[in-house]
Amino acid sequence: MAKIYNYDVMFDDTSIDVSKEVALVWSIANSLRGAYTSDKYKDVIIPMVILRRFECALADTKKAVVDKYKANPKLPAALLEKVSGYPFYNTSEFTLARLLNDSDNIAENFVSYIESFSANVQTIFNNLDFKKQIEKMDKNNRLYGVVKKFSEIDFDPKSIDGMKMGYIFEDIIRRFSENAEAGDHYTPREVIRLLVNILLAEGCNDLLTEEGKVATVLDAACGSGGMLSTTHDFLARKNPFIDVRLFGQEINPESYAICLAEMMIKGQNAENICYQDSMKADRFKGTKMRFVIENPPFGTPWGGKDAAEGVEQAVQAEYKKGFDGRWGAGLPGSGDMQMLFIQSAIDKMDDNLGRAAIIENGSTLFAGGTSSGESQIRRWMLENDLIEAIIALPVDLFYNTGIA
Length: 404
What we know:
globular; alpha/beta; 5 strands; 5-stranded parallel sheet
C-alpha cells in the first residue's frame, strides 16, 4: 500500500530554530573587533560560512576524492565530481581542523586549501576576494582563532538541511544589512511559501502528479536563493519524481556567492546562477520558464544620476527593440525599476503554462498619470489578461523595510 504523506506538515518550518548557530557565528564575528570594523565583518564571515558548508558536505567522500586525485592528478573534473557526490570537490588533504596542526604556516596552507577546490568553488572565493582576508587575519593574529571556531561548527547537510541553512544564511545577511539601501530587503520564508502556493493553485496538475516532468524556476533578483530553494523544496515534496531546474541572477556579490553555494549543494547547474544585473542583461535569453518568482528592489532607479553605471543605457537599448525586447509595453519613471522587472518576468514565462508571482510595493498600482509609462504598462497587462490577482500584505513584514 502506498504511503500517504501530509505535505503541508512536511513543509511546516515554523519550528526551525537557528538562534544557536547564528549566535555562534556572530560570536566569531565579534572576535574580529580591532582588526575589522563591524561593517567589514561580513568580508570574513560570509566566505567562512560558505567554506564550512562545503567542507561538511564533502566530508564523507573527501578521502576517496584525495586518493583518486593522487593516483591520477589529470583526472577530468567530471570523474572527481562523481566520486565526491556533488558538482564540486576538493583535492587537498587539508581541512579547517588540519590547518591548525601547523600554526606557523596556517595562512599559506589555507590558501593552498582554497586553491584545491574545483574551479566553480574557487570562483566564489575569488569573487569575494577571500585570499586577501586570509592574509589580513593572519597579520592581525585572528586567523588561527577564526579557523578553529569554524572547524567546530556543524553545517553538515545531513543535520542542517537546505531550508535550515537558508534561514542561517538569511539571518546572518540580515544582521550585516541593517544599514543596507532601503530598496534591498530579504523575504521571510512564510511569504515565499505563500507565493509558491499561489503559483501552484491551478494549472500545475501535471507537475504535481506525473513522473519525469521538468519545472524551470527563475528568480531574476535571487539574493541568497531563498525563493529558489523554497520553491524547489516545495515542488520536490509534492512530487518526488519531478526535475526542478533553478535559474537566478543577482547583483550583490555576497548574496550571489551564498546562493551559488547552496544551489551547488542541491545539485543544481552552477551555470544557471549568474552574477549579473538583470537590468543590463537576460542571461537566459531564449529559455522560457514555467515559474518566475521574485522580490525585486523597491524604489531603485534605473535612470538618472542615481542609477548604477550602465543601467540606463542598457534599459534604453532594450526598449528600442519594442516587443522583440523585454520592455515593449513602455518604460516607467526612471526612479523605480519594479515595472521593468514585471515586464521581464512576463517575457520569461512559458507562453502556454508560465506563471509568475512577484512582490511589489504599492507604487506599481498608483504611480504615474494616465499617459505615463506606468499607466501604459498596467493597461497592456490588463488588456492581455496577464493579471490574475493582486494580494495585499501587511506592513513590517520584510527585513529592512516597514512598508507594505
